[in-house]
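Dear colleague,

Thank you for sharing your sequence with our group. We've completed the structure prediction you requested, and as agreed, I am returning the results in plain text so they can be pasted directly into your records. Please verify that the sequence below matches your submission; if there's any discrepancy, let me know and we will rerun it promptly.
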Amino acid sequence: MSPAVPALRRPVPAALSRAALRMEEAATEAAETSAEEATCIEDDAIEECTLAEWPAGKLAVPMSWMKTAKLGLCMFTWFFLNVMYNITNKKCQNAFPMPWTMTFVSLFVGVPYILLLWASGLRKAPKLNPGWWKVLAPIGAAHALGHAGAVIALGAGAVSFAQTVKAAEPVFTCVLSYFVLGTVFKWPVYASLIPIVGGVSLASLKELSFTWKALYGAVTSNVAFASRAVLSKATMDKPVGENMGAANLYGVLTILAVMFTAPFAFYFEGPTFATEFAKSASVVGAPWLVRQMALDGFYYYAYNEVAFITLNQVAPVTHSIANTFKRVAIILATVLVFGNKLSPLGAAGSAIAVAGTFIYSLAKSKYG
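Please find the predicted structure tokens below.
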């Protein structure tokens, strides 16, 4: 009788071994992910977020608190960046009074950031359709002019006065909406414009730092930004390409605005740029001036990016409240930083105008 032959183990194919290994790694990764996600649980019965956990217990808060905290952080960042932009821009123009150059630089600084995001794949690059420029070029031009007017107003007068006049933008939006789009709002919307006009008029008459150049710049900005809003509403229903969300749309408009602004900056300030820069640098130092101009552009683009993220998370009424407090924060912060005195009537006019924009926003969201 022949000796028993031990049973031979069949070799496992390498492909199956690799598949098993991948399945094991995937299972481990899924378990780790589940463990991470288990810290924040949302279902019909439980809605909480675990901040810390130990063998004897855990520290958890309602998920609604976390969402509120996240939104509050976004709004604080938006307000902070917006305030810093206004302060930095005013400091730069006090030292280097070249508003068209400042307009170009503050727009241009955002362009490398946009292109880097698209080139790295961190944000999907837009794929524009043929003829896209017919839709976006007018909006980009309005964006460039609106920003230029605002910068000119900031340089020519107090920031508080510029912000007060810019609170009148809804007036121009209503007028252009009627003449361009044929849109007629209900009477409460038009009634809400009365305190805006009255407040701006009062602030203009009694503002201690009033200048006609600041008034013209702010009004030009209002007309341009109102035109941008109306043009967007009139044309943006036409598809311009893929991956054209709010952030990418703003990126494309920024690039267009840089292209539109460059010729004006070169025409108005190009011949005297070197002389004025050398004169300013001799007082404040070239490194300080370059650094502040770069920061100005960073703050400008960053606050717009954060604004897109923040305002997409809130209801129209919350949006209105946020915009109102943002303008108040800018006025108060710049008055404290630069020490510009407000006359009692000028302060009252500013308060009435800003309150009027809030009432307009409420009326627009309900009746518009």
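Summary note from our side: The mean pLDDT is 81.

Kind regards,
the structure core
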